[in-house]
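Subject: sequence -> structure tokens, single chain

Hey, anyone have a minute? Need the predicted structure for the following. Not urgent.
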Amino acid sequence: MQISDAESVVMDVLWKRSPLSADEVVAALSGQREWQEATVKTLLNRLLKKGAIDAGKDGRRYLYVPVLQRQAWVQGQSESLLDRLFGGRVAPLVAHFSEQRKLSRKDIADLRKLLEELDDDGR
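Reply:
Had a minute. Here:
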């Protein structure tokens, strides 16, 4: 499922805590974004149409809950990035960050540990 960057901000609010009303989503975003209430409601409606969230009636308001799970979205985003930029391979991604000096010593140590664990698992 494709969701825009703006929609992912709204999803992040719902992934952290739900169900929430539109007003509660607006309030949660007020410190992060300078979006008007109408903008947030538009984003909620887009997410509803895409099936990323669901809404249930609670008196005179709707409460929104995520249908799309964060882990599934992150996996899709990660695979899309790898496919588009690195031919679906992880090694060129790591090499890119290494060449750009974006890997800290801790990152390198974590990668070594991960590789050792993968090696131990026989992958």
